[in-house]
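User: I'm writing a tutorial on reading structure tokens. Could you give me a worked example: one chain, its sequence, then its tokens, then a sentence or two explaining what the tokens reveal?
Assistant: Sure. Here is the example chain.
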Amino acid sequence: MSNLLSFEIKQHEAYRFIGKSVYARAGMQCGDAYFNDFLFENTNWMREKLDEMQEYTSDIIQNAALMTWEKYCDKTKLLGFTYGRFMKPETPVPDGMDYFDIAEGYMAIGLFDNWDNGNQEGDVKKAIDEQGGYKNASWRFMGELNHGDGNFGYFISCDKATTDDANMTAGTSP
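And here are its predicted structure tokens:
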């Protein structure tokens, strides 16, 4: 059951995502308690430091959890989870923090009213397909936004769809 309040695909500037990273094996239940309770609760120092860096704030001001695949291989199957914030690309990285540079592009963002009800990743991917004109590029990055007002966001990297993409979806050859 979807609780998707709003959906948009926006063109975004380049970012430097800065925060604290952990890695977990794909397909294994790591337990939300570790990621949401332990890691999130123990990164207040990081959020406070980023709050001090107002001159580097980007257009996305919410705290976020970014999922990446930079260490993924068939042997380790490690997914990266970085809790932090989207900052301007030239932002200096404070000691003890990790970062990922994100090129300008497109991002789908869904807003939800209840994180415990539904499949946010699946709902945003479905909305990308239904809107048309874009294709899911979640292999690049995706993650969660904490709006702090009881609402939560889920974001997924996108690319503009090409004519060949549309033909494959429609079942025709280019």
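What the tokens reveal: The beta strands are 4-12, 15-25, 63-68, 78-87, 98-102, 105-112, 134-136, 142-146, 152-160. Helices lie at 32-41, 44-52, 120-131, 163-170.
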